[in-house]
Amino acid sequence: MDKNLLITGGSRGIGAATAVLAASQGYRVCINYLSDHASAERICGQIREAGGYAIAVQADVSNEDEIIRLFSRVDSEMGRLTALVNNAGTVGEASRVDAMSEFRMLKIMMSNVVGPMLCSKHALLRMLPRHGGHGGSIVNVSSVAARLGSPGEYVDYAASKGALDTFTIGLAKEVAGEGVRVNAVRPGYIFTEFHALSGDPQRVSKLEPTIPMGRGGLADEVAEAILWLLSDKASYSTGSFIDLGGGR
Ligand code: NAP
């Protein structure tokens, strides 16, 4: 069976590492991004140089019209989707809840919860046998924040990942008998540009003493777990989570 993978937020960080590893394992990859066209094209170029297939498609996953356009590009340029990684996500500046705006909370929930739910919907329309599909695999990129709550930093973000975990469990059970597996990874502190969004690009290095393993994680280490969950090696796993938090 063809291995056609869509990764949301694949232009950098965990998504980019996942795209490169997936291509090396024979997936044809669609790299979605929000605004960083140059980085998305650079990752595509890296994959093509290694003999793989990749396209980059701009779309905001918090908007269903843009998601529909994104999936249409996958349909026409790659064929039927077999794998989805809901990786795109965002976070606001470190803050207490009593200082958070409605705008910020809605943006976090739209990007981190509604976006993955809508992308899953459009993936299911291609994967489920009732819609002419042949099954598939979805991996959601959650966070250890879903378990820990992130007090004083971004409780809104942690709550969005908690919702994503619940969505993972429910959807996994809903489609378990129809050939689609749904799982999630929960990374801890990973060295990516993500932490600049919360106001401190050096955040992971500074917090290393608080991590049981004593170091931050690498995007490649998260990508390995995502690829395992996507693959047939994880054929009996659905509704499950792999924590990549160095013991947190
Ligand atoms: P990152 O380096 O900031 O990359 C985020 C990616 O998401 C970029 O490709 C960005 O596109 C894209 N993106 C953001 N909002 C989007 C939207 N509305 N529509 C489409 N694409 C969007 O982040 P990362 O560290 O790799 O994080 C990836 C995932 O892991 C996120 O869900 C995050 O919550 C989760 N996570 C990260 C950590 C960590 O420590 N880094 C820990 C736990 C969980 P542009 O480049 O175009 O802006």
UniProtKB/TrEMBL annotation:
<dbReference type="GO" id="GO:0016491">
    <property type="term" value="F:oxidoreductase activity"/>
</dbReference>
<dbReference type="InterPro" id="IPR036291">
    <property type="entry name" value="NAD(P)-bd_dom_sf"/>
</dbReference>
<dbReference type="InterPro" id="IPR020904">
    <property type="entry name" value="Sc_DH/Rdtase_CS"/>
</dbReference>
<dbReference type="Pfam" id="PF13561">
    <property type="entry name" value="adh_short_C2"/>
</dbReference>
<dbReference type="InterPro" id="IPR002347">
    <property type="entry name" value="SDR_fam"/>
</dbReference>
<protein>
    <submittedName>
        <fullName>NAD(P)-dependent dehydrogenase, short-chain alcohol dehydrogenase family</fullName>
    </submittedName>
</protein>
<keyword id="KW-0560">Oxidoreductase</keyword>
<comment type="similarity">
    <text>Belongs to the short-chain dehydrogenases/reductases (SDR) family.</text>
</comment>
